[in-house]
Design goal:
about 500 residues, Lambda Exonuclease, Chain A, Nucleotidyltransferase, domain 5, 17 helices, binds iron/sulfur cluster, 3 domains, alpha/beta, 6-stranded mixed β-sheet
Length: about 500
């Protein structure tokens, strides 16, 4: 038996980063970074949402949440034996597995585990529930199912999420994960369970891997130092953990990749490494060379044809994904390429309601439409996706065709997907607007500029209505728009493409 229990939250973390599980368990906690205000806000809102859902769930619910763990476990078992219809905060164990599902609902002779989440029940897809189950939610439910089956209260390989939209999302754990992926979420659970047991028993040692979750992780200081000292391959933009693990036995780090002769690894368009073709491997080598060379400069891989309009509109929006609420649209207007005369327009939803969101959207849309000859510059597909969604929610503002015209590639450029990713290379670890604009010398006025921080400020502003917080949000958005302008001008200065192949 393992030395520490395998819990649902451990599997949740493991699905996102194995290193985190090992560090949480064995590393000196004083080495952790402070928990960010954003993460604390997520916890607070998660607890508030759970309380709200329970209040609506009615009286026919057995609440065991306040009891001591062993009492709770005994009472859960009794309640299931007695056939209680709905149990909140129960505790179930089997061997090394411990589960505390938010809810257990009687289904036939067994119990269906349900978790209450303050996020959406699925990822990807649109509003019509056509997304996919989240692995980190699924493995939690799978652990409960596993324990329930062992205890004789199974109700099949399924669970459910009660999500932030108030919907119950079914998790069918034995269904194929995709048309071309016959493996199931249950398979993934069994794999992660085995990996968790190896970690808690110290039969395996994990490695950090730079990933999107690091920014909010309390081990980011420890891991960043380790990654940099090792010259880890995941410091290369878009080279992730799986590929690093595949390649690193042969090419261990950045320096080795930068200087490697790739010929023995490449046959036509393929390589000996699973999951990477010849073209991508050469691209990663180019990125490794840029990172290893202190005098490296960003470059154009292929020519880009950037329009030079009379008016530039740099556009950025701020969205609270938990509220599903767009609270700010920022537009920086530059005429004739003159930075000294640029003007910034903020359209802020002062009322946190559909009316407030609609009015801010309508004003921003009018502003963007008012300059028919302008080019709109934005960073990532998000703005266009959100505008399509806002149009659906508020069809009196404009039509679907109006949105398509607004984002017509002839007058709107997604600088990230159409230019940075397609045509440029940078001596940086990622291609976020923050990283690239900072590389070019731009500085945000705020000491903690990030989308996550903005959401936390907005949450605070909804409760405190402090004008200083509102201004902080607007200033941050203005700086994001200005950073987009700095990046565009920086890209215009890049040297023309040279032969950079290995
Ligand atoms: S900082 Fe990144 S690599 Fe390290 S534990 Fe956290 S998520 Fe994992």
């Amino acid at each position: 038996m393992s030395s520490a229990p395998i819990t649902a939250s451990l599997l949740y973390d493991l699905a996102q980063c194995p290193r985190r599980v090992e560090l949480d368990m064995f590393r000196d906690p004083t080495e952790r970074e402070p928990i960010s205000a954003f993460v604390e806000m997520l916890w607070r809102r998660g607890a508030a949402w759970e309380a709200e859902v329970l209040a609506d769930a009615g009286a026919d619910i057995l609440d065991l949440s306040g009891l001591a763990p062993d009492v709770r476990e005994a009472r859960t078992l009794e309640a299931m034996q007695a056939g209680a219809p709905l149990i909140y905060g129960g505790r179930i164990t089997a061997g090394d597995r411990v589960g505390v599902p938010d809810l257990l609902r009687r289904t036939g002779d067994g119990y269906l585990p349900i978790d209450i989440k303050s996020g959406r029940g699925e990822e990807g897809g649109g509003d019509e529930g056509d997304g996919k189950p989240k692995l980190h939610y699924a493995v939690q439910l799978a652990l409960y199912v596993d324990v329930l089956q062992t205890l004789g209260f199974g109700a099949g390989l399924r669970g459910a999420i009660w999500d932030v939209r108030g919907e119950e999302v079914d998790y069918l754990l034995d269904a194929p994960r995709g048309a071309r992926n016959p493996s199931t979420l249950w398979d993934a659970y069994l794999e992660l369970l085995a990996q968790a047991r190896d970690i808690v028993a110290r039969r395996t040692v994990t490695r950090p891997a730079a990933n999107a979750g690091c920014k909010l992780c309390h081990w980011r200081g420890v891991c960043t130092r380790e990654l940099e000292a090792a010259g880890d391959l995941t410091l290369i933009p878009t080279l992730g953990r799986a590929l690093r693990d595949e390649v690193s036995a042969t090419i261990p780090n950045l320096t080795a990749l930068a200087s490697a002769d790739l010929t023995p690894f490449i046959t036509e368009s393929r390589t000996v490494f699973r999951g990477v073709g010849a073209e991508r491997l050469r691209l990663f080598q180019l990125r490794a060379r840029l990172l290893c060379d202190p005098s490296a400069r960003p470059l154009l891989r292929v020519p880009v044809d950037l329009p030079t309009p009379r008016v530039d509109l740099f556009f950025d929006i701020e969205v609270d994904p938990l509220r599903d609420f767009t609270y700010l649209h920022g537009v920086l207007v530059r005429r004739g390429g003159d930075n000294s005369a640029e003007t910034f327009h903020a359209f802020y939803a002062d009322e946190v309601s559909p009316k407030g969101e609609r009015d801010a959207f309508a004003q921003a849309y009018a502003c963007l439409r008012a300059e028919p000859d302008a080019v709109i510059w934005y960073y990532s597909k998000y703005e266009r996706t959100l505008y399509r969604k806002l149009q659906k929610a508020y069809p009196d503002v404009c039509s679907p065709d109006d949105i398509e015209r607004l984002f017509d590639p002839a007058r709107a450029v997604d600088l990230y997907n159409d230019v940075v990713t397609r045509a440029t290379e940078w001596p940086t670890h990622d291609h976020s607007i923050k990283t690239l604009a900072k590389y070019l010398g731009f500085r945000w006025r705020d000491t903690d500029p990030s989308g996550a921080a903005s959401i936390e400020w907005f949450d605070r502003w909804t409760r405190e209505r402090d004008p200083a917080i509102r201004q902080r949000i607007v200033d941050y958005n203005e700086d994001d728009c200005r950073a987009t302008r700095v990046l565009l001008d920086g890209i215009r200065q890049l040297a023309p493409p040279a032969d950079t192949a290995a």
